[in-house]
Amino acid sequence: MKTTVIIFPGSNRDRDMIAAITKISGHTPQTVWHTELEIPASDLVIIPGGFSYGDYLRAGAIAARSPIMDALSKTANRGVPIIGVCNGFQILTEAGLLPGALMRNAGLTFVCREVKLEITNAETQFSSRYGQGEIIRCPVAHHDGNYYADEAVLKKLENNGRVVFRYAEGTNPNGSVNDIAGIINERGNVLGMMPHPENLIEDAHTGDDGRRLFESALGLVA
Amino acid sequence: MALFNARVTVTLKNGVLDPQGKAIEGSLSALGIAGVEQVRQGKVFEISLNADTKKAAIESLNFMCEKLLSNTVIEDYCVEIVA
Predict the structure, then answer these.
(1) What chain B residue is nearest to A144 in terms of C-alpha separation?
(2) Domains in chain B, ordered, with CATH?
(3) CB distance A106–B71 less than 8 Å?
(4) Would you state the torsion angle of the CA atoms of residues A46, A51, A52, A54, taken in this order, to the nearest 10 degrees?
(5) CA pair distance B51, A172, nearest whole angstrom
(6) In which band, very low, low, confident or very high, does the pLDDT at B19 lie, cut at 50, 70 and 90?
(7) What DSSP character marks residue A205?
(8) Could you read off the pLDDT of B25-72 as tens digits, one per residue?
(9) Exposed (0-12), middle (13-18) or buried (19+): which is B34, by Cβ within 10 Å?
């Protein structure tokens, strides 16, 4: 099993992600630096959280134009599962691999706390180990997580089961439209989400609700 | 080739909520400044570029906006040559 974590200048959740994948799968992910032009054969590719390029211009904007992104786009087109968490989600939208945009939190403050997520589609390759409608705990930590898409895009997302995670009632931390916390692309192999499932995978984290996301993604490709 | 000085303005599209603009509105009101209907916050880029003609310079600036300077999902842009 091969997992790849892509690292940009300013990524800072890469080590959490690598630790989580290593503990869950028993395999240590390979890392790819943003200036590289190829992504080695992988069963799962992850863009971790952080503040690539200091969020200059727009969160994820500069990273989304990095040399590695052509290879990421090709990898996505081959159907390889890709997960972008937090800044990774911002980069995927900026790169056009996922629709919509992540704007400044509606409350204008950085939010770092735990929220509740509803599994709104348990039939994706990233959520199959959860129950439909299940409510899980998950930490968030971001300043620009306010998901926005126009009516036409929202309709497509909602009507095609592409909203995978929604902030459970009363826990939307950032003003995201329709309480959207995580979406997949049309093909279903690219997931972007603001919350950090890699930070809730073992007792030391006080729970393991995030673990099944990785088990879902890795189980399918094992 | 000539040097053109351009100003590129990037603003949120109509209908896209602008919490920063709202906060500024609130602050202006707190300062006792009356009459403000609405504030929308945007970005201004001052760009000097070399191009054969003004038309080529504008084309290049539009390309920059589409590729990087704006996120056309949420933002509009406006390009002008100032000198």
Answers:
(1) B19
(2) 2-81 (3.30.1280.10)
(3) no
(4) 180
(5) 48
(6) confident
(7) G
(8) 999 999 999 999 999 999 999 999 999 999 999 999 999 999 999 999
(9) exposed
Taking the C-alpha atoms of residue B42 and residue B74, their distance in angstroms, rounded to an integer, is 11
User: Average of pLDDT values for A143-164?
Assistant: 97
CA A23/CA A131 separation, integer angstroms:
23
Name residue A174's amino acid.
Answer: N
Which pairs from A127-136 meet CB under 8 Å and 24+ separation? A127/A164, A127/A165, A127/A213, A127/A216, A128/A216, A128/A219, A128/A220, A129/A212, A129/A213, A129/A215, A129/A216, A129/A219, A130/A212, A130/A213, A130/A216, A135/A168, A136/A209, A136/A210
C-beta atoms of A65 and B67 within 8 A: yes
Alpha-carbon distance of B31 to A173, in angstroms, equals 29
A143 in B contact zone (CB under 8 Å): no
Sign of the alpha-carbon torsion through A105, B23, B43, A109: negative
The answer to whether the CB atoms of A148 and B19 lie below 8 A apart is no
Percent of chain A scoring above 90 in pLDDT: 97
Distance of residue A100 Cα from the nearest chain B Cα, in angstroms: 6
Number of domains in chain A: 1
CA distances from A176 to A25, A102, A107, A144, A146 (A): 32, 8, 11, 10, 4
Can you give the residue range of the structural domain that contains A184?
A: 3-221
Q: Are A181 and A137 in contact (CB under 8 A)?
A: no
Q: Active-site residues of A: which are they? A: 86, 196, 198
Token couple for A139: 């930490």
